[in-house]
Amino acid sequence: MAVVEDGMVLLDGRSGRYYQVNDSGALVLGVLIEGGGEEEAADALTERYGVSRSRALADIDKIVRQLRSTGLMTS
């Protein structure tokens, strides 16, 4: 994982594939990596970007599903 100017880049060490996420995705990943849950990530998104809580939770669900489908997140 590397933080870049407009988000974060992730490397899947098993496949060698790189994935890039934007700023909001990086914020969500940062919260999850630090041990926070989806509720805390939603708090961070609503605070930083002023989106509704339902929108934040929907976006987080999408990010988590994508990470799981690529094998980058297992729990």
Kindly describe this structure.
This protein has helices at 23-33, 38-49, 53-70; strands at residues 2-4, 7-11, 18-21. It is of the alpha+beta class and 75 residues long. It has a three-stranded antiparallel beta sheet with strand order 1-2-3, covered by helices on one side. The mean pLDDT is 91.
Protein topology:
Blueprint: E1 2-4, E2 7-11, E3 18-21, H1 23-33, H2 38-49, H3 53-70
Antiparallel strand pairs: 1-2, 2-3
Helix pairs in contact: 1-2, 2-3
Secondary-structure-derived class? alpha+beta
- Main beta-sheet strand count, sense and barrel state: 3 strands, antiparallel
Contiguous helical run count: 3
Return the string of H and E elements: EEEHHH
Number of strands: 3
**Overall 3D shape:** globular
Strand content: 15-25%
Q: Mean pLDDT score, rounded?
A: 91
Helical residue percent? Answer: 40-55%
Radius of gyration over C-alpha positions, nearest whole angstrom = 12 Å
**Alpha-carbon distance between the two ends:** 18 Å
Strand order of the largest sheet: 1-2-3
Taking pLDDT < 50 over at least 5 consecutive residues as the criterion, the unreliable ranges are: none
